[in-house]
């Protein structure tokens, strides 16, 4: 079981891994070994996620989620399959963790009248200071 939050855990059997050849560092080894990982997770079909988490996950995943609700993550940062596999799992856990935290809506408030007046008074004072710098001297 992969623990995401104290309430959410996903069995590893829900994840599907496919190993592909990776570009990048590795020298000649990169042409012979399939070290990159494509991991699939059927988020919309998972009984371990609530409907609210699934809805937020759909927006957070963006292009990584297809029409059927399957999340596809590719990991190719590291040279070994195991490191890339761990990296893909960590990225999925972080994505689901973000979706599990509810969005806190900001409550709109009015600016207090005193604060508006203070701001306008400060503007008037500053305008007066700048106005006195005009350079026009009346000698009469």
Alpha-carbon distance between the two ends: 91 Å
The structural class is alpha+beta
When the domains are counted, the total is 1
Mean pLDDT metric = 82
What string, H for helix and E for strand, traces the elements in order?
EEEEHEHH
CATH fold-level label: Double Stranded RNA Binding Domain
What CATH architecture do you see? 2-Layer Sandwich
Q: What spatial order of strands do you see in the largest sheet? A: 3-4-5
Describe the structure.
The chain has 140 residues and is of the alpha+beta class. It has one domain: 2-Layer Sandwich (Double Stranded RNA Binding Domain). Helices cover 36% and strands 16% of the residues. It contains 3 helices and 5 strands, in the order ββββαβαα. The chain has helices at residues 51-61, 81-100, 113-131, and strands spanning 2-3, 9-10, 15-20, 36-42, 70-75. A 3-stranded antiparallel beta sheet has the order 3-4-5, covered by helices on one side. A two-stranded antiparallel ribbon has the order 1-2. A hairpin with a 5-residue loop joins strand 1 and strand 2 (9-10). Helix 1 crosses helix 2. The chain is elongated and about 95 Å long.
